[in-house]
């Protein structure tokens, strides 16, 4: 559980009863490989695995997850650093796309890590088979770009100075040995490439209650390290999404090969999940928002490692699939099998700034 500052009164703007980003979810080709990398290379802690998630004869997978009715999924949850959960999926589906979107494409994405020493971190990542993209950037560039063994983009940068606006990862008081070897301080942001940056920012601020903290990189500027080598220099906006997360939205490039985001079941599929106190109240609010489509009604999981989780997926007009959920952390079945625990908001609220 996070170390909390005194909670502020609830702020009635944005997603009702929202506390924090709960997890970043990504669909990978091989779940075992991705879990091993997240644990053995990035220093995460495996909390649980579940599956198969399937409906052999009905349409539940389509109605609730937006995938082919015969799709089948295996899932794992890895805690990465003090504040972040990664939910990793391996899908099989008759219509699955096997190539992930690129950074210029709609649906492109990356995970940005903050480390104590970028040189030490690069050496650690390269020894584990992580590919460094491009040569060292020009003087003053902060980001180094890497590709995981299955093709997901990572950016790495050194410590940030707190400015009171963006979330800045702080050292984990109880790091794993691998986390210490990497020097991981935490996940600084997740990045998504969208078809319409202005519409994306408006959705995040007006509907979700996010705050703009940084804008940059007009298309005609030179490389600044914020985009991977070879990617177009597109406009981007960094938003504060709750007390312990940032989200970067990037305008898709003129050379984009894909104009539609991936489905959950495609390699490179993804969604963004928010922890809320009241899933039903949040769903009622989202139902009234233009362009939002709820995938059925909220459901409560009744068996498995996270029995008691109440959740609902929804699609958005900006092409990023999202989820709202509320879990009885502290009494989940997986907690009887491991000492690892999901990162939770604790007493923090959406507009708190620890």
Automatic annotation (TrEMBL):
Top-level taxon of origin: Bacteria
Keywords for this protein: Metal-binding
Domain VOC: residue ranges: 20-159, 186-327
Pfam family, one: Glyoxalase
InterPro entries xref list: Glyas_Bleomycin-R_OHBP_Dase, Glyas_Fos-R_dOase_dom, MMCE/EMCE_epimerase, VOC_core
UniProt-recorded name of the protein: VOC family protein
The organism of origin for this protein: Streptomyces griseoincarnatus
High-level lineage: Bacteria, Bacillati, Actinomycetota, Actinomycetes, Kitasatosporales
């Amino acid at each position: 559980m996070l170390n909390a500052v005194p909670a502020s009164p609830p702020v009635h703007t944005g997603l009702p009863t929202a506390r924090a980003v709960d997890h970043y979810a990504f669909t990978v080709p091989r779940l075992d490989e991705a879990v091993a990398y997240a644990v053995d290379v990035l220093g995460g802690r495996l909390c649980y695995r579940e599956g198969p998630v399937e409906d052999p004869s009905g349409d539940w997978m389509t109605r609730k997850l937006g995938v082919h009715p015969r799709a089948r999924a295996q899932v794992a949850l890895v805690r990465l650093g003090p504040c972040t959960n990664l939910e990793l999926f391996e899908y099989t589906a008759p219509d699955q796309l096997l190539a992930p979107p690129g950074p210029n494409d709609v649906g492109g994405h990356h995970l940005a890590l903050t480390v104590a020493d970028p040189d030490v971190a690069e050496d650690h990542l390269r020894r584990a088979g992580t590919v460094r993209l491009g040569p060292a950037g020009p003087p003053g560039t902060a980001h180094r770009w890497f590709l995981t063994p299955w093709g997901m983009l990572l950016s790495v940068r050194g410590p940030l100075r707190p400015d009171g606006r963006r979330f800045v990862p702080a050292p984990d008081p109880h790091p794993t040995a691998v986390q210490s070897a990497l020097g991981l301080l935490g996940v600084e942001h997740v990045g998504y490439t969208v078809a319409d940056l202005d519409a994306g920012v408006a959705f995040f601020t007006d509907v979700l209650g996010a705050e703009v903290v940084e804008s940059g990189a007009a298309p005609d500027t030179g490389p600044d390290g914020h985009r991977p080598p070879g990617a177009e220099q597109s406009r981007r906006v960094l938003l504060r999404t709750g007390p312990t997360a940032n989200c970067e939205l990037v305008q898709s490039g003129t050379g984009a090969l894909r104009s539609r985001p991936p489905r959950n079941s495609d390699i490179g599929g993804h969604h963004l999940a928010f922890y809320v106190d009241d899933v039903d109240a949040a769903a009622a609010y989202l139902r009234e928002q233009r362009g939002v489509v709820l995938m059925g009604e909220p459901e409560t999981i009744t068996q498995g490692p996270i029995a008691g989780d109440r959740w609902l997926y929804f699609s958005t007009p900006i092409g990023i699939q999202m989820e709202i959920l509320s879990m009885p952390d502290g009494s989940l079945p997986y907690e009887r099998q491991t000492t690892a625990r999901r990162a939770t908001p604790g007493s923090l609220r959406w507009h708190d700034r620890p």
